[in-house]
Amino acid sequence: MAKNNRGDRAGRKELVDRVVKIKRCAAVVKGGRRFSFAAMVVAGDGKGKAGWGYGKANEVPPCVDKAQRKASRRMTVAPIVDGTIPHEVKGRFGAARVILLPARPGTGIIAGESVRSVCEAFGITDILTKSFGSNNPVSLVKATFQALDQLRTKQDIEHLRGVTLG
Question: Which of 78, 97, 117, 137 is the most buried (most CB within 10 A)?
Answer without folding.
Answer: 117
